[in-house]
Design the sequence.
């Protein structure tokens, strides 16, 4: 039975040949090439013929054909990263997002039985404590710039809030003359600062292209003024290293009714985003690798030499 072949890269053509015994002389057989039979039975090889000029121009084309990306995602990646390097900085002032930011904020605020708990700008200004001198040292608060804006939207109700606590240095005891005279060899006293956490949706909107990711997450605020901010990805794992499904975990802990409310809120958020031309990428799409891209020197994925995924192409941060 003959199987149809996909279109080869521009400027190339398929070569199909048969042989027996040792491999036929094709340097780059496709990953789908196979043999059948036993011993010296016939083997079938499929390869691509391309001139040296076309080989240079189409570097990476074969890799692209092996990744089944959505058309809009593929086109956006090619447009945003023509040199195939994901890097900072980029001109965020030219982003489409600034035209819809206020509209999205208002729309999320107006969702019934839910709260827009907070936002995180793509670029956060450096800050100093009250007793710090901006002219004499680095900022006390310096956060990395990101390629995306974050909204955190949470349903109303006790099922979506919880009490928590965090270790905190007790400044009223630490910042005394007696402690300063004791020298740096003494450990500062540490106590527990109570706080309140909320479960909801991390809504990350890329400034590079009209894509969003909506994932379950948590935020927490503590009495000592510190905060736990929501992240797109959760790295929660079991003891044997398996990723924990946060939605399933929430359903088991809080029940089907609370989970139904949570899912309903996500649908409303997605509807608002899509109304303003922003496509929501499901996890099965944003987790796909993009092997022809690599991270630039000013990005974490570049320094760590990590493989680039769809998520990393549109949602990343620079190094502080």
Sequence:
């Amino acid at each position: 039975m003959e199987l149809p072949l996909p279109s080869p890269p521009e400027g190339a053509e398929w070569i199909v040949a048969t042989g027996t015994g040792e491999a036929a002389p094709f340097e780059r057989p496709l990953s789908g090439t196979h043999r059948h039979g036993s011993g010296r039975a016939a083997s079938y090889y499929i390869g691509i013929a391309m001139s040296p000029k076309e080989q240079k121009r189409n570097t990476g084309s074969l890799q692209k054909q092996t990744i089944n990306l959505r058309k809009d995602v593929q086109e956006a990646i090619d447009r945003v990263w023509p040199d195939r390097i994901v890097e900072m900085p980029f001109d965020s002032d030219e982003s489409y997002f600034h035209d819809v930011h206020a509209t999205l904020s208002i729309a999320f605020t107006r969702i019934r039985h839910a709260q827009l708990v907070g936002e995180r700008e793509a670029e956060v200004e450096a800050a100093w404590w009250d007793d710090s001198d901006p002219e004499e040292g680095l900022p006390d608060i310096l956060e990395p710039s990101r390629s995306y804006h974050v909204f955190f939207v949470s349903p109303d109700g006790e099922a979506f809030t919880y009490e928590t606590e965090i270790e905190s240095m007790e400044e009223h005891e630490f910042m005394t003359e007696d402690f300063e005279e004791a020298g740096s060899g003494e450990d500062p006293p540490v106590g527990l600062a109570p706080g309140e956490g909320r479960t909801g949706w991390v809504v990350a909107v890329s400034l590079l292209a009209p894509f969003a990711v909506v994932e379950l997450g948590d935020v927490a605020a503590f009495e000592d003024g510190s905060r736990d901010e929501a992240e797109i990805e959760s790295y929660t794992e079991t003891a044997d290293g398996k990723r924990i499904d946060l939605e399933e975990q929430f359903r088991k802990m809080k029940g089907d009714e609370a989970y139904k409310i949570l899912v309903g809120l996500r649908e409303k958020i997605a509807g608002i985003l899509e109304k303003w031309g922003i496509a929501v990428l499901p996890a099965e799409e944003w987790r796909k690798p993009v092997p022809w891209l690599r991270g630039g020197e000013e990005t974490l994925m570049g320094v760590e030499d990590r493989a680039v995924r769809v998520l990393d192409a549109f949602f990343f941060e620079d190094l502080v």
Observations:
- Residues 256-275 form the longest helix (20 residues).
- Residues 1-59 form one domain.
- The chain has two domains: 1-59, 85-128+141-314.
- Confidence is low (pLDDT under 50) at residues 14-62.
